[in-house]
From TrEMBL:
It is found in: Cytoplasm. Its cofactor is Mg(2+). GO terms for molecular function: 6-phosphofructokinase activity; ATP binding; metal ion binding. Residues 114-422 form the Phosphofructokinase domain. This is ATP-dependent 6-phosphofructokinase. It comes from the Eukaryota. GO terms for cellular component: cytoplasm. Coiled coil: none annotated. InterPro entries: ATP_PFK, PFKA, Phosphofructokinase_dom, PKF_sf, PyroP-dep_PFK_TP0108. Mg(2+) binds at D211. It comes from Juglans regia. It catalyses: beta-D-fructose 6-phosphate + ATP = beta-D-fructose 1,6-bisphosphate + ADP + H(+). Signal peptide: none annotated.
Length: 486
């Protein structure tokens, strides 16, 4: 196998100093496959501020750090976006710069550094941990003393005074759910935001938010570059739905899945304890079904999982009701998990509801759980008027995201915050830090803002769901009926 490495922007090709090592005792054509990768360039302050000077990383003189060989990350350290390859044909992968401390930094005197931290969009477990670790990391690692929290999302840049933060103040924040800085949707006024950043003298801006926030951050970055300001902007990806693309997963997601399982367990107990009982749980997931999928996979109590990425229908051969009837007949009960964005096109809506949007422009969803409950009851009363039937609907919505992060998410938040700080100190801007195939990397903000992580219903994970639930595809006119499958 040959490996080649390309600098994406200047198209020079250089061999990477490594030799792939795998068992080639059975020599065949797969051994000659070519794996090439190209480094993804990040925006940098020196792209438009050519005279900026570097200095030695202050970690060199930090009494609590002892930088040893290999401690500093160099520009040739990369993380491959794709690690699964088919050796029978040439393949290619993007390569992101690895996150971590650089030996030279573009940090102005710490006394002239003013960092701003803002949280936008919905809540997510771990927000307070990220804020805490940004404050403590900036303070302890790089000696920054002017760190500010911008209140209530993007609008806070122009509508309220920032609050000064320090390690003592934020010491216990990781133990609390929510965001101590407050958050909001909407209020994105580009000129006012960038004016606010300039007026407050911020030169580092840490923006914590989801897909919408990242799209806003790209606009802020562009405006800052247009004004040629010495201000680094970095995005820290946050979304309980896990719908941000490229990174392995978003922080808080695991905590949310854990919480979701408590609701599934309760639904199972309720369903099992009733005659012909259905336990119905609605979980967050505006346009992706990751929480529903992972909670289903890990609980093993779910008979059917419905997510926005798959279509379903209720009545008739091959429909959801036929399937549930079969399950109830076999087991006496069934558990149904539905992501909030599933089945939205099936629910009757009034004209006004069709165009309803939240302050950020996201469509307002109808309650798929409430609708399913009522449709299930009508259907059973029609089909089995003399038999008992119970639907217990559990909607734990905000309970799964308004909680502190679990241990794994807390650790993840810490690494994210520190990665972001190191990148900003290196003069990078317009980037997002996040784990890619288990290694922390810097990804262009623009790429993250455009990428979406949807459940791939053709891959193994969805096949696992099917093997756990034994649910069919709800496809009209299929030849098998559910009795054949179960
Ligand atoms: N395309 C966009 N351009 C500029 N700003 C945007 C854009 N989309 C959203 N925003 C702004 O980003 C902020 C957060 O957006 P949104 O409410 O969609 O949440 P989010 O970041 O996607 O997080 P989550 O979905 O996890 O709640 C809001 O202030 C919103 O006005
Ligand atoms: O009620 P809010 O705060 O607008 O948030 C609800 C939405 O936010 C999310 O938690 C994240 O996007 C979605 O799952 C949910 O639809
Ligand atoms: Mg969003």
């Amino acid at each position: 196998m040959a490996v080649s490495y390309t600098e994406a922007n200047n198209l020079t090709t250089a061999p990477i100093p490594c030799s792939p090592n795998y068992n080639s005792s059975n020599s065949n054509s797969t051994n000659t496959a070519t794996l090439s990768f190209s480094a993804v360039q990040l925006p940098h302050l020196t792209d438009y501020l050519r005279d900026l000077q570097t200095r030695t990383n202050p970690l060199e003189h930090n009494p609590f750090y002892h930088p040893s060989d290999g401690f500093y990350i160099t520009d040739s350290d990369v993380v491959l976006r794709h690690v699964v390859h088919d050796l029978s044909s040439p393949s290619h992968s993007a390569a992101y710069h690895r996150a971590g401390p650089r030996n030279r930094v573009f940090l102005d005197q710490p006394s002239r550094t003013r960092a701003a931290i803002v949280t936008c969009g919905g809540l997510c477990p771990g927000l307070n941990t990220v804020i805490r670790e940004l404050v403590v990391g900036l303070w302890d690692l790089y000696g920054v003393r002017q760190i500010f929290g911008v209140k209530a999302g993007y609008r806070g840049f122009y509508s309220s005074e920032p609050v000064e933060l320090n390690p003592k103040l934020v010491d216990n924040w990781h133990k609390n759910g929510g965001t101590a800085l407050e958050t909001s949707r909407g209020g994105f006024d580009l000129q006012k935001i960038v004016d606010g950043i300039q007026d407050h003298g911020f030169n580092q801006v840490y923006i914590i938010g989801g897909d919408g926030t990242m799209r806003g951050a790209v606009n802020i970055l562009d405006e800052i570059r247009r004004r040629r300001l010495n201000i680094s902007v970095t995005g820290i990806p946050k979304t309980v739905d896990n719908d941000v693309g490229i990174i392995d997963r978003s922080f808080g997601f695991q905590t949310a899945v854990e919480r979701a399982q408590e609701a599934i367990s309760a639904a199972h107990v309720e369903a099992e304890s009733a005659v012909n009982g259905i336990g119905l749980v609605k979980l967050m997931g505006r346009s992706t079904g990751h929480i529903a999928l992972y909670a289903t996979l890990s609980s093993r109590e779910v008979d059917c999982c419905l997510i926005p990425e798959i279509d379903f229908y209720l009545e008739g051969q091959g429909g959801l009701f036929e399937f549930l009837e079969q399950r109830v007949k076999e087991n006496g009960h069934a558990v149904l998990v539905v992501a909030e964005g599933a089945g939205q096109d099936l629910i009757p809506r009034k004209d006004a509801q069709t165009s309803e949007k939240d302050e950020s422009g996201n469509p307002v969803l109808l309650d798929v759980g409430g609708w399913l409950k009522s449709e299930l009851k009508k259907w059973w009363a029609r089909e089995h008027p003399d038999d008992l039937f119970t639907v217990k609907y559990i909607d734990p919505t905000y309970m799964i995201r308004a909680v502190p992060a679990n241990a794994t998410d807390n650790l993840y938040c810490t690494l994210l915050a520190h990665s972001a700080i190191h990148g900003v100190m290196a003069g990078d801007t317009g980037f997002v830090s996040g784990p890619v195939n288990g290694n922390y990397a810097y990804i262009p903000l623009e790429e993250v803002a455009q990428a979406k992580n949807e459940v791939n219903t053709k891959d193994h994970k969805w096949a696992w769901v099917r093997s756990v639930t034994n649910q069919p595809d709800f496809v009209r006119n299929q030849t098998l009926n559910h009795a054949d499958i179960s």
